[in-house]
Design a protein that fits this description.
Length: about 160
Amino acid sequence: MKPKFADIEAWRQAELLMQPAFIRVIDNLRKQLEQTSWKGSYRDVPIWADDTPEDVKATVARLQEQLKTASPQQTEEIQNALSHLPSPHPGYELCLQQADRQVTIDLWELCYRVCFANDIHEPVRVDTSLIDETGAVDWDRLDEKTKALVEQIFENLPD
């Protein structure tokens, strides 16, 4: 689910924080994985608007698959067809495995937890403690919060 912003200032602040937060999330996940017996793999997942019908999703997936082996003329036709269909936003997941257990972590959702002070089901409030007095990212605070959230995830994994 994509966050809804109360105003342009919240959007600007989120734009400032999201990329650094994503990088910190990935780095902290890597560090935690190195200290556990869990194995992790990343995967791209499409994120569709809630009102996108299943048949449209299937059509887009089929056309995207056809693009991989299409001739130049077919590529143009497929791209034209895709331009008239909705397209998903890229999503990313970390799949953790240990023996017969599997846990999936939505990386954007984790970044939202880092960057926002409230739930994304309502207009989001950016955690302004992550922005210093000059309006730049407070790297130390961002690192601390990200590390704490990632550690919490690993502490709550099933034994």
